[in-house]
Specification:
Blueprint: H1 3-22, H2 24-59, H3 66-90, H4 96-103, H5 106-117, E1 120-122, H6 124-144, H7 151-177, H8 179-200, H9 211-239, H10 241-245, H11 251-263, H12 269-286, E2 289-292, E3 298-300
Antiparallel strand pairs: 1-2, 2-3
Helix pairs in contact: 1-9, 1-11, 2-3, 2-8, 2-9, 2-11, 3-7, 3-8, 4-11, 4-12, 5-7, 5-12, 6-12, 7-8, 8-9
Organism: Neobacillus bataviensis LMG 21833
InterPro entries: AA-Vitamin_Transporters, EamA_dom, EmrE-like
Subcellular location: Endomembrane system
Length: 301
Amino acid sequence: MQGETREKFGLLLGLVGVICFSLTLPSTSIAVEYFGTTVVGLGRTVVAAILVAVVLIVRKEKLPSPRQFTSLLIVAVGAVLGFPLLTSWAMESLPVSHGAVELALLPLATAGFAMFRAGEVPSLKFWISSIIGSFAVIVYALHLGFGQLQFADLALLAAVVILGLSYAEGGKLAKELGSWQVIAWAIMIGAPFFIIPVGLNLTTEMLHAPIQAWVSFIYLAVVSQFLAYVAWYSAMAMGGIARVSQIQYLQPFLMILFATVFLDESITLFTLVIAVIVVFSVILGKNAPVTKKGSVSKTRA
């Protein structure tokens, strides 16, 4: 595949990945009503592990080294345990459009952790953009919570921080282990620990859940937890990390759109305005110059 064609295909894969991720919160909102937080948050990984195991065996992937295993633990805590569990719990009480606004801070959190992991010093521009985005999200959460933050809001913000660290660690590790292999091994690390808690929360009533609940859960397990990551990491490898990552700015708006289409949520002008402010702050912060420790040279977040 020629360079230009490869880059365009990478951008297309990136768009596919973002669309897949944008359906995660709506699917979680539907599934958690019938299966509960534990089954949806952790059960998706148990199911995904079956698919991942087949792929790893067929491709005869070698085991990660002990040093790589340490980084994979960080990825697993964020992308496999923390984020799915916290968002599942939050979606029991919050509308998807609410979650979309708060998760819009994820690229900024990822950029921040990537800076620190790379030994870089964030510029004033980065901190200003972080304050703008965070303040907008807090104002939005307080407005919808009638003057106080709900625990579900705190759970979503914690999910952003945890997944941001996980993304940064995974992006660093992907350079030596491979792109999709990072999430694949993270799933295999976490799944064995989730089998017992998931099993204890299974009930016969779940068998009678409507088809949309089952479709949502399967989507979360197969697509959100694994295939979307394959598309996303492959896209960055083909189209370039900087270019492809820009597509992620569409995610909060796609989430809001899907919430309107599939969940009949009413979207207010206030929600859209806050989403625009947050996305603008993320773009500003992600492109802020940073300096390497002990160096006067500059790079980009």
